[in-house]
Amino acid sequence: MTETSQYAATFSLVDADGDGRISASELAELIRRLGDECTEERAAEVVAAMDGDHDDLISLAEFADYMSRNQV
């Protein structure tokens, strides 16, 4: 399991409602606030790529696992 603490601050920025999960709508909203276009459908595709338990939400553990596997 990936160490989650190094990703917790970034995760918290995206988790706008603070429920411990990132939804497609939260992700789309962040991307739009950063100045990019993002549809709910595209955000849902990104969530699906990270969503290990298939609940349509990203947990901190899923986020950290994805980020550690996809470091540039």
Structural key phrases:
mainly alpha; two-stranded antiparallel sheet
What does this structure look like?
It comes from Nocardiopsis aegyptia. This is Ca2+-binding EF-hand superfamily protein. GO terms for molecular function: calcium ion binding. Pfam families: EF-hand_7. Residues 2-37 form the EF-hand domain. With 72 residues, the chain is mainly alpha-helical. The chain has one domain: Recoverin, domain 1. It has helices at residues 8-14, 24-33, 40-50, 60-69, and strands spanning 21-22, 58-59. It has a two-stranded antiparallel ribbon with strand order 1-2. Helix 2 crosses helix 3. It is globular. 21% of the residues are buried.
Tally of distinct domains = 1
CATH architecture: Orthogonal Bundle
**Rg for CA atoms:** 12 Å
Major sheet description = 2 strands, antiparallel
The percentage helix is 40-55%
Distance between the termini: 19 Å
Sheet with most strands: strand arrangement: 1-2
What is the averaged pLDDT score? 92
Overall spatial form: globular
What is the CATH superfamily classification?
Answer: EF-hand
Give the strand tally. 2
The CATH class assignment is Mainly Alpha
Quickly give the structural class. Answer: mainly alpha
Runs with pLDDT <50, length 5+? none
**Hey, roughly how much beta strand do the residues contain?**
5-15%
The string of secondary-structure elements, in order, is: HEHHEH
What would you call the quaternary organization?
A: single chain
CATH topology: Recoverin, domain 1
**Distinct helical segment count:** 4
GO molecular function: calcium ion binding
Domain EF-hand: 2-37
InterPro entries: EF-hand-dom_pair, EF_Hand_1_Ca_BS, EF_hand_dom
Protein name: Ca2+-binding EF-hand superfamily protein
